[in-house]
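In this notebook, the sequence line spells out the residues, with the fold written below as integer tokens. This is how one looks.
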Amino acid sequence: MNPAGVVYALLAYGAWGFVPIYWKWLTHLPPAELLSHRVLWTVVFCALLLTALRRWNEVRDALGRRRERFIVGGAALLLGTNWLIFLWAIATDRIIDTSLGYYLNPLVNVVLGVGLLGERLRRAQGVAVGLAALGVTGLVIDHGGLPWISLALAGTFGAYGLAHKLTTGVRPIPRLWIEATVLSPIAAGFLAFFVEPAGGALVTEPVPTRTLLVLAGPITALPLLWFASAARRLPLSTLGLFQYIAPSLTLLIAVFLYAEPFTRAHGFAFACIWFALALYTWDTRQATRPDARRYADGRNRSSKSAITRS
């Protein structure tokens, strides 16, 4: 295992796990205003990164392909929606719901792959999805309604990941700059016309708050850069194990730092999803083992030979 890859993965998922603390410091501001600042400062910071790394040519290449322009534009809307729901959940003391949503995300990816990309669902994957559905059903019965924050976060981020899968030629930082730039007219318009005075907190708040707002750019972009660095150094199956660090940290923060209530229904739902994720991870690692792939290839060749002989 590549040590540098492990460090980058820990940095990325650790940052995503602890980020609710950062946004909690800013919950005296409306979520829509926070989202607008996040978008605009992400544009600025990513532009600085692209200049320092001399990678503006990647942006030009991506924008030169009509199909990728269309998909990245749709991905930007999904990302903006995901960010807004996340910020609103933190502002209303529902960090546990965000943790549940990001635990659900890998299983939502399986469902999207089967439903939209025609991928085949392995037996263990089907059981894992069923267990997750059972956990969500328990919350529905207990709360009398769907855990819409969790499902919306998992759904929007899953669809955003699907868009990434369809545009593999665009690297993370150029992609994030394009996506944030797509959202920037909406963000700038909101701060100019729907906040009093224009500019909002950047004008009215003290220096510490303004500093935190400016830091939204690096706090958004740097974990993506670390994740990309980890992905280049680690096998996908190994990297997948790290993805549970972020929602686990978020859950601990919600319960022990902010004293959000963790009910029996939450316990049942999380237990089902944790077991589902363990099964999903085991199945993924089994499917990516070299001997498993050779066995599958051998079966495919045998099937083809039988068809040929018949």
Remarks:
- The mean pLDDT is 87.
- The two ends are 46 Å apart (CA to CA).
- Residues 3-309 form one domain.
- Residues 237 and 289 are 9 Å apart (CA to CA).
